[in-house]
């Protein structure tokens, strides 16, 4: 074993420390580059290769290849593609490939230290010989070290070529000391790389679970599913615009890559509680709709009344001395009144922004009409629940149904706060749970004021409202025009609903227009005079 002097030992320890610091870098590509460079510097190797297993773990692909004498640096941070074919880990019959030294090290888990490959009769170095012939190079000593994690799973293979001991220009063998240092380096690096891979896999799993929730919501209601896709998109567009603002109240707001990831995940999960909301409430297109639209039942009752009126008229005609003309006129008046009431209830069943009090009173008058049901008993034409629904002033939801809808945010918050979020994602529940709060404290679920809300939560509130206003796929309403949506949102900025400073950026940076062209129906995109938008300081 070649004995190292104190200076050489100190140098190698410094290199190991350098790698230890580099291993903390989240960029796996950078870490792999540093491992190979440090390994070469530590042993004086002229060249080196780092192999990584391919996706199906059937071969070793060249990830980085360096040769100082030839001036070659391919793969890794160089950005230059490596044209060499991958080393197969198995032969055509499926047996482990042990003829290639890198494949052997990968399978066996043992390092291979060869002083002179041209004198070796164990492994197949035909590829190396071809390389030497092509480049006029002479490969001699090889040190091949497998990199495996704590489970024994292959992480990669580190291979060094042509040792040049310090102070000597001649090529020599890699010493046992070299081998032990490189094995220690490979072991340390394997653990760090595996940890990075596990973190990345966990992040991918988290995103997959989020997608799973959104798929469930989408399957319940495709309308809500589209909302879950577009709100994150609009949220990030506005957040980036705020990030780029150089002056005004939002000039100090900045986003790091980690902040972006956190906000993106929160926006994806902002309506996760809707997975518990009954679909007939989420998609309630008419006032009487539950699992089916009950207007059909009311139509049937009208048919019964029309039939009864006709029967009564026919019976009257059969009476001695009956005046057929009078009877027919009376029947016509009853029939016309019934048809008019039926047409009115059909109109009343459609949600509007403000149902007149007179129309509500007419519903109640019709409700008191008597009819005979299938059991032969008489009852009011409309029951209490039907009257309650048909007299809804705004939209199609009763107060209880609106409470059920609003409860999704409470469920979302409970779901998100129950998760053990890591430090860099700790704000996800607050961001996702705050998009129904208002600047004036009149929102829900917690009645927070603007000062109590984070900027990302206020950004998401604007994105959520604007997408809902412009959405063209809701069963209970049509998508509003772009100008109309901005006018409504502007009023909300004026009355304490949304942040006026963020709304100003939303308009000024043309976020609304970019979003509109990418996601709205062209028929909704009308001309916008920004000077007329409430709350916007043109």
TrEMBL record:
UniProt cross-references to InterPro entries, sorted A to Z: GAF (IPR003018), GAF-like_dom_sf (IPR029016), HD/PDEase_dom (IPR003607), HD_GYP_dom (IPR037522)
Record Pfam families: GAF, HD_5
Family matches, as Gene3D superfamilies: 3.30.450.40, Hypothetical protein af1432
Domain HD-GYP: 319-522
Matching PROSITE patterns: HD_GYP
PANTHER family xref list: CYCLIC DI-GMP PHOSPHODIESTERASE PA4108, CYCLIC DI-GMP PHOSPHODIESTERASE PA4108-RELATED
Record's protein name: GAF domain-containing protein
Native source species: Massilia mucilaginosa
Phylogenetic classification of the source organism: Bacteria, Pseudomonadati, Pseudomonadota, Betaproteobacteria, Burkholderiales
């Amino acid at each position: 074993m070649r004995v190292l002097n104190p200076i050489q030992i100190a140098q190698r320890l410094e290199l190991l420390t350098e790698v230890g610091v580099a291993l903390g870098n989240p960029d796996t590509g950078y870490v792999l580059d540093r491992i190979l460079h440090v390994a070469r510097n530590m042993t004086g190797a002229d060249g080196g290769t780092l192999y990584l297993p391919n996706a199906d773990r059937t071969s070793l692909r060249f990830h980085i290849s360096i040769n100082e004498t030839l001036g070659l640096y391919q793969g890794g941070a160089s950005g230059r593609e490596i044209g060499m074919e991958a080393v197969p880990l198995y032969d055509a019959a499926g047996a482990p490939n042990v003829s290639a030294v890198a494949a052997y090290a990968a399978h066996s888990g043992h390092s291979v230290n060869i002083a002179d490959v041209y004198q070796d009769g164990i492994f197949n170095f035909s590829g190396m010989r071809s390389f030497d012939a092509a480049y006029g190079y002479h490969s001699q000593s090889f040190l091949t070290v497998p990199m495996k994690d704590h489970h024994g799973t292959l992480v990669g293979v580190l291979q060094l070529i042509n040792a040049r001991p310090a102070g000597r220009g001649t090529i020599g063998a890699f010493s046992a000391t070299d081998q032990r240092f490189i094995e220690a380096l490979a072991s340390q690096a394997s653990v760090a790389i595996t940890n990075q891979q596990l973190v990345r896999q966990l992040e991918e799993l988290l995103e997959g679970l989020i997608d799973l929730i959104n798929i469930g919501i989408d399957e319940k209601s495709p309308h809500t599913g589209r909302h879950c896709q577009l709100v994150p998109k609009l949220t990030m567009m506005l957040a980036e615009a705020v990030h780029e603002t150089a002056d005004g109240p939002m000039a100090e707001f900045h986003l790091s890559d980690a902040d972006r990831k956190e906000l993106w995940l929160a926006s994806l999960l902002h309506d996760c509680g809707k997975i518990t909301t009954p679909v007939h409430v989420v998609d309630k297109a008419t006032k009487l709709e539950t699992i089916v639209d009950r207007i059909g039942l009311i139509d049937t009752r009208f048919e019964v009344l029309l039939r009864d009126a006709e029967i009564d008229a026919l019976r009257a005609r059969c009476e001695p001395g009956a005046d057929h003309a009078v009877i027919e006129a009376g029947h016509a008046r009853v029939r016309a009144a019934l048809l008019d009431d039926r047409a009115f209830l059909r109109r009343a069943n459609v949600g509007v922004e403000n149902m007149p009090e007179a129309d509500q009173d007419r519903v109640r008058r019709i409700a008191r009409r008597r009819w005979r049901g299938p059991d032969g008993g008489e009852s009011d034409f409309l029951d209490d629940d039907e009257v309650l629904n048909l007299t809804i002033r705004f939209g199609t939801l009763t107060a209880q149904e609106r409470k059920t809808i609003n409860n999704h945010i409470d469920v979302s918050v409970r779901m998100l706060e129950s998760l053990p979020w890591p430090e860099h994602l700790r704000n996800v529940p607050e961001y996702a749970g705050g998009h129904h709060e208002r600047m004036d404290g009149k929102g829900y679920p917690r009645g927070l004021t603007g000062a109590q809300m984070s900027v990302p939560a206020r950004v998401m509130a604007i994105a959520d409202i604007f997408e809902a206003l412009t959405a063209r796929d809701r069963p209970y309403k049509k998508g509003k025009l772009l100008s109309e949506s901005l006018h409504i949102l502007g009023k909300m900025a004026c009355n304490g609903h949304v942040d006026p400073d963020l709304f100003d950026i939303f308009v000024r940076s043309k976020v609304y227009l970019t979003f509109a062209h990418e996601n709205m129906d062209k028929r909704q995109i009308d001309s916008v005079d920004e000077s007329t938008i409430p709350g916007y300081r043109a």
